[in-house]
TrEMBL record:
Protein name, per record: Uncharacterized protein
Biological source species: Pseudomonas graminis
Amino acid sequence: MSDRTYPYTAWLLTRNFQLLEVELVDQGFANSAYDRTDKGRNYHVDELFLTKARAIAFGEAKLAALAKELERRQRGLLKRRLELQRCK
């Protein structure tokens, strides 16, 4: 979103994976990659998406990465359980 013109509307994916449509009115900080909403909140431009479809695709990719990480941790947990059972 370089060369942004204000105001503009973007989609935001929250930590709880909820989609919000926000209106951004100007830069959050001078010469920064943050934009400020009409309510005064600052969001990094990497967290903002021009379309709802892009925000959903980003959320799905984030969930896939999270599932992969959980699977890796589950394998480690299983190894530790097996090691403890071997010691009994």
